[in-house]
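Still learning. Show one?

>
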Amino acid sequence: MTRQEAFQRVSTGAVSVVDWFKRIPVRAQLKAKDWQEAKEQEQDQPALFVLKERQQDVLDFYNHFENLVEILCDAAQRGATVKLQDRFTEERNWMQTHYYLVRPYLAAYLTLDADDADHSLLLQGVAGDAVQTLYASASLDSLVHSDDGNMISRIIRCREAQNLYAEHLRQLIAREKACS
């Protein structure tokens, strides 16, 4: 490559960088317009927007819940390995920070059992529902070994509650779409 070719490549790159900076105000205006249109759409259909948000929260929760159940089942069969403990800690942390988003709604469909509160109290010193009991202990090994024989029924009740709530949301969304 000659000096002149190299100079042309560099100067072409510099021109494109200058053009990029010149286009910042236009890009900012387009982003602001997109944001404004999204806000208007939310205001036109606030109920539908909220319902879809809740539906996404339930889907996220469902995926993490199933990961947690898989870890618990693997640990019950093969023992709490270091790898399983690491996965459990990750899912437990997610549950502790995100379960509050769906708990008020899921609780309406969750069959409550006093054994859940007792078992959670034993493991973490705070009473909890069936979902919270499944991640009550920081140690996967202690959680599996302290199983009071109700873990499977807790899992089933949690899945039923998730399915009922998800179906309720699907019906509400369908009704909102039909009304608009």
Q: What stands out?
A: The first helix runs from residue 3 to 22. The mean pLDDT is 83. The radius of gyration is 26 Å.
